[in-house]
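Replying to the earlier thread about multi-chain prediction with a worked example.

Input:
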Amino acid sequence: MKSDALKSPEEIYEYLKASFDELLEYVPAELGQSWITVPPFSMKAVAKFLRDDPALRFNTLMCQSGVHYPDEDELGVTYHLHSTSHKHTLVLKVRVPIADPRVQSVEAIWKTADWHEREAWDLLGIVFDGHPNLKRILCPEGWEGHPLRKDYRQQETYLGVTTGA
Amino acid sequence: MGLLDKKYHDSNIIIVPLENALNWARKSSLWYEQFGLACCAIEMMATAASHYDFDRFGILPRSSPRQADVMIVAGTVTMKMASRIERLYEQMSEPRYVISMGSCSNSGGPYWEHGYHVLKGVDKVIPVDVYVPGCPPRPEALLEGFLKLQERITNETVVESKPDGK
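Result:
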C-alpha cells in the first residue's frame, strides 16, 4: 500500500486521464492545493471512480462548498476529498453558468454531500441533479433568493415581520 | 421566608391583601422556560448552575411552556425561529413574562444591519418585560434582570392588566 500512498494531485490527474480522457483539467495552484476541474455533467461518474478505484479510494468527502464568481457570471462547487486508507487528499472544482446552475449530485456516492448540497442550494442556488431531497436547510421555507450570492437583496418582510432591510 | 416563619410560628393565620399575597407568590417562583438560542444560553446555564444559583430566588427551569411563568429569550432570534418563539409564547399561560437577554434579542445585536436572517429585536413578535443588555450579559446581569422583573410583579394589581400585556 505504501507505494500508492501520498499521491499528488498531478499524479492522480495522470491516473484519471486513462479513464476520463479529455473531460478533466489539471490546474496547478500558485498557493495552496492544486485542483482538478470536472465538467458538471460527469461529476457523479468521476466521484464514483475516485471512491471505488483501488488505487485512489477517496472514501471521505471532507468538505463541499459553493462559490459565486460574479465577474464570470458563474457558480462553482469545490470538493475536498480524503482517503483514510491511502492518506491522500484531492480538490475538485466544478463551474456552471449562473443562468443554468446544474451539477450532478454526489449524494449517492458520499452521504456527507446530502446536507452540503442542500446548503449550496439554499445559500447560492446551485441545483444538484439527482439529489433526493433538495430543499432549503438553513433559511426558512418560502424564503426569497439565495443570500450568499453577491448580488443578493434581502426581502423586506418575512411573514409580516420586517427583516431590517 | 425565614422571617415570616418565625413571626407567625404560633398561628397558621396570616392576614394580607390578596394582591400582595399573589404578587409575592408569583415573584418568588418564577419558573422559566428552558431553551437557549445562542451564546447567551451558556451564561443563562451558568446563572442556573451552583455558583450563581437561580434556585435561591425560586427560579427553576421548566421544559414545557405550559408550566413556565417567564420566557428568557437567550440569544439570536433568527427569522426562522421568530414564528416558533411566538408560538411558544402563546402556549404559556397567564400571567406570563418575557426577559430579553442580550443584544441580539434586544435589537439584533451584531446582526442589526447586515444580518439578513436575524430578527431585529424579539419585541417585534412578542411583548418584552425586561431587557438585559450585554453580549452576552454576565450572570449578575441576568439576575439583575430577574430582580427588575420581581420589582415589576410586586407592583402589579389584580384588577388591571399589565401595561403592555397582550
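The interface with chain B takes residues 138-140, 143, 147, 152, 154, 158-159, 161-165 of chain A (CB under 8 Å).

Feel free to reuse this layout for your own posts.
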